[in-house]
Amino acid sequence: MVILTVQAVLSLRLVWSNSAYNDEALYLWAGRLEWSHWLHNTPIPSFPTYFSGAPVLYPPLGALANSLGGLAGARILSLCFMLGATVLLHGVTRRSFDRYSAVFAAALFAGLGSAQYLGAFATYDAMALFLLATATWLGVRAAACRSDVGKAGLVVLAAGALAAADVSKYAATLFDPIVIIAVACFHWRTLGRRAGGLACLLMAGGTAAGLTIALAVGGRSYWAGVSTTTLSRSQGNWPVFGILFVSVGWVGAIAALAVIGAAAASCVRRTAAERVLVWTLATAALLAPAEQARIHVFTSLFKHVAFGAWFGAVLAGYAMTAFIRAVPKVKSRGALKVVIAVVVLATISGSSLAVNHFGAWNNVSPALPALETALGTHPDTLLTDETPPFYYYLEKFEPWQLMTSIPTSSASTIAYDIKQRRFGFVLLSFAEGGGGCGNVDPSVKKTQAQCVHNMDLSVLSEIISDGGYRLIARIPYRTTSFKSYYMLWAREGSQH
Question: Could you please report the per-residue DSSP string of 79-139?
Answer without folding.
Answer: HHHHHHHHHHHHHHHHHHS-HHHHHHHHHHHHH-HHHHHHTT--STHHHHHHHHHHHHHHH
